[in-house]
Amino acid sequence: MIIFREAKREDLERIVQLLADDMLGTGREDVSIPLHQAYEQAFEAISKDKHNELIVAEWDEKVVGVCQLTYIPYLTYRGSWRAIIEGVRIASECRGKGFGEALIKEAIVRAKEKGARLVQLTTDKQRSKAKHFYEKIGFKATHEGMKLEL
To answer: Rounded to an integer, what distance in angstroms lies between the CA atom of residue 136 and that of residue 105?
Structure first.
């Protein structure tokens, strides 16, 4: 049975390992121990922010998935809230077994409970399987996302 819960400080090393365990993350994350201080600082900031949730999926007493859920107030849609899903990762040995879908559905339930009007996410264009996965769950590519790396 999959258990979803807020991430704890002791999960951080595993979370970073999950973030690094894919074709893009391997080049941008640093799994060396001790963890880079920036990870510690980011975890603290996320943990203290009432508009952020770092959700982990635990199976067989091991963290096998993670996603960050951020709530943002908007003036559009009559001043509604939206939730943004970021940093979604499932352990490579658990992919294709329903863990990712369960994690996203958990994030959607939490967003509804907080009163969000919509949930949005981005996925890198290089991740064609991820795009198909999100479409299967019901997400639609209605906008073209743009980023500027600083």
So the answer is: 12
**pLDDT tier at 17, thresholds 50, 70, 90:** very high
CB 53 within 8 A of CB 84: no
Give ∠ CA 107-52-145 in degrees, rounded to 5.
70
DSSP annotation string for 93-120: GGTTTTHHHHHHHHHHHHHHHTTEEEEE
- The pLDDT tens digits of the residues spanning 116-128 come to 999 999 988 888 8
For residue 148, give the 3-state DSSP assignment. coil
Q: Compute CA distances 58 → 26, 36, 134, whole Å.
A: 22, 24, 21
Does the global pTM surpass 0.85?
A: yes
